[in-house]
Amino acid sequence: MSAFSAGDGSVAADGAVRRHPILLVALAELHLERGDELLDVFCKLLAGAQRRANTAVDRARHKTARTRDELAELATTLSRIVLEESAAGRDPTARITRDVGLARLRDAAGIAKAQLPPLEQEQLDLLHGGHHSLTRALSAILDTVALRARDADQPLLDALELVRRQRRNRFLTGAPIDALPREYRGWVLDEDGRVLRTRYELGLWCAIRDALRDGRLFRLASRKYLDPAAFLLPDREWGASARGTRDHFRPAIRPDRAPTRARGRADPADRERAVCRRPRRRRAP
């Protein structure tokens, strides 16, 4: 009969008890590592989408570079004409018609705003085109990994919870715009001032990614995304440690010394007298 098949079952129970802490430690380690890996995937997916959007913007910029240069030159010419004619007290219309020409002005006025969007808006629009491919993975990661924040960054987690509750809506109600990066705050609104959910999610994901990198969002158990304050001593322990360190390295103070000695200052005259009283060593014959 083996030890684990004893009649009273004490040895078998003892082995099970020894295995339980090992299993708990293994599960805790697995939870820690997988949570960090999921947040790494979150950051990489978002960075890859932004990199593809920037590449597409650069490609489009090369196609419209000539048009933008011509418009910039036209604006410089018009500005100079208007300033010079205004300083002379004349109407600049005749000179603009003569030096620039109405045909050139018509061509510039015929360019639609959508053909030459601002750089930030163009990047965000291209990034928004990949929202459908990102939302399933990024939302699942944020729903799985529990994040914590300090009081100043709690609005990020509140906004994330609001998006979870209104995930089926096209427009969000009560979404805090200030929680997003500055370049996203006007872009997430439509013509009527309503908050578009998909655009808001993109801005919120970028804000969460930046907060994870800065340590403003963290996990309670992590190696890479731990609270930076966890590496510091609490105020009570810091005070006790500072006092202990000060007492340990404080120099011994003799009560008969002058107050300057108590402050760690040495009197040059005392040092000179001590050197004079020191016996000289005789050289060996």
Describe the overall structure.
It is a single chain. With 285 residues, the chain is mainly alpha-helical. It is 62% helix and 3% strand. The protein has a two-stranded antiparallel sheet. The chain has a two-stranded antiparallel ribbon with strand order 2-3. Helix 1 runs antiparallel to helix 4, helix 1 (10-88) crosses helix 5 and helix 6 (154-165) runs antiparallel to helix 7. The longest helix is centred in the N-terminal third of the chain and has 79 residues, at 10-88.
Chain-wise SSE layout:
Elements: H1 10-88, H2 93-99, H3 102-109, H4 119-128, H5 131-144, E1 148-149, H6 154-165, E2 171-172, E3 195-196, H7 197-214, E4 217-218, H8 235-249, H9 259-262, H10 268-277
Antiparallel strand pairs: 1-4, 2-3
Helix pairs in contact: 1-4, 1-5, 6-7
Structural domain tally? 1
What is the strand arrangement across the widest sheet? Answer: 1-4
Fraction of residues in H or I helices: 55-70%
Largest sheet, strands/sense/barrel: 2 strands, antiparallel
First CA to last CA: what distance?
A: 88 Å
The quaternary structure here is single chain
Instruction: Sum up the overall morphology in one term.
Output: elongated
Roughly what fraction of the amino acids lie in strands?
A: under 5%
Protein structure class: mainly alpha
Q: Gyration radius, to the nearest Å?
A: 36 Å
Mean pLDDT: 80
Helix tally?
10
Unreliable spans: 1-11
How many beta-strand elements?
4
Following the backbone from N to C, one meets helices and strands in this order, namely HHHHHEHEEHEHHH
